[in-house]
Fold this protein.
Amino acid sequence: MSRRPSSPDPGGRRSFADHQADELARRAARGDAEAFGELCQALHNDVWRYCWSLTGSGELADEATQETFLRATTAISRFRGEAPVRVWFIVLARRSVGETLRQMKRSPVPAEPVTMAVRDHTGTVDLAELIEALPPDSRQAFVLTQMLGFSYADAALSMGCPVGTIRSRVFRAKAELVTAWNGHETATAEEACE
């Protein structure tokens, strides 16, 4: 009895946009330059956000994103669709971040513990600053699943770890963000009473 290959989308949980991206990738792998351009445009923001989640720096995220798409230019011909193309690009992005950091002889920005949100002059809190303050592994898992919409399974595949690890990292990230936000709310209430 032969085993059927596992479906890249068990249960049909992937979005229409994901299916479209995979189709663009298959066309690009066959040499369709227009499809490759559309694919890169569609995934640019996701790749940049992920690079930012690894580096904590917009400048380094720009460099790594550029490196990712440069790598994809030659690697797309080897895309076989065994994993969703978004996962494939995130794996390329992770490698590009490593190479960018090596070239610049820098380390990822160390995360400081999330303690309390700081209001700016308008009285608002910058969510990006709160996310930047998360530990790198939690930040990556949070960005992939909560900002980019990756399934926990795809995030685990992208990060090379078990699904349970992704779930616990996202849980911790959410808890830290809530704590930071609640600290902001408490500070706002105290300031209002003054």
